[in-house]
Amino acid sequence: xxxxxxxxxxxxxxxxxxxxxxxxxxxxxxxxxxxxxxxxxxxxxxxxxxxxxxxxxxxxxxxxxxxxxxxxxxxxxxxxxxxxxxxxxxxxxxxxxxxxxxxxxxxxxxxxxxxxxxxxxxxxxxxxxxxxxxxxxxxxxxxxxxxxxxxxxxxxxxxxxxxxxxxxxxxxxxxxxxxxxxxxxxxxxxxxxxxxxxxxxxxxxxxxxxxxxxxxxxxxxxxxxxxxxxxxxxxxxxxxxxxxxxxxxxxxxxxxxxxxxxxxxxxxxxxxxxx
Length: 275
Description:
The protein is an all-alpha fold. The chain has one domain (about 45-275). The protein is about 70% helix and about 0% strand. It has 15 helices and no strands. The chain has helices at about 1-10, 30-35, 45-75, 85-100, 110-120, 125, 130-145, 155-165, 170-180, 185-190, 190-205, 210-230, 230-245, 250-255, 255-275. Helix 3 packs parallel to helix 15 (about 255-275), helix 8 runs parallel beside helix 9 and helix 11 packs antiparallel against helix 15 (about 255-275). The radius of gyration is 20 Å and the shape is globular. Residues about 25-30 have low confidence and may be disordered.
């Protein structure tokens, strides 16, 4: 009798497939990420290459759109000096895509983050010490955030990721092109900052806590959006953000395609916002 009771009690704390039931009140990221369902994929599978390619291109659109537009408004020109920075953003974007499509457990992404960090040692970047430190800090953080035992896959990690993703690469691009940074440019980065918080929320926190937080992050993104610009494009940005909000409730059906959807919607939003 005692053995049967023990077995029934043990089964009550397990999911139908035999996995242990996640602790809902736990702050441990490992308790919350391991129950997300991703397709078993291979490197030759289109379910690997398509999300990887789309995320890589989308991240570069997000990072490069505003700095190039602002440089043109100042009568600046695009020069070969941004070549090391372009290689850096490609490497980091591929690493982030691997990180997201492999549920923040990608050892291969470390290689691309290491390659990206090597481009920061270019004389054109290293001579600008502040830019060099910021770009290197982003590489280090993207490795650290994948260490589940550090517990950074929460609201603190989300804020740090948004700060680094927003105020490192775009500022570096603008500074390398113009040798200065304007206050107007930094203020224009605020919608991008809150877009990173909102669109990366379900990626970094794919759990009930993250879905609750997304209500707040969506509201903050809308407040900054309407304070920045109001027009026809604003309606489409709102629709894209609503679609991303609904999309987070469909992870078990979409798998890796979902993270691609978030970043693609963010890229569309930034294209419409900065024009």
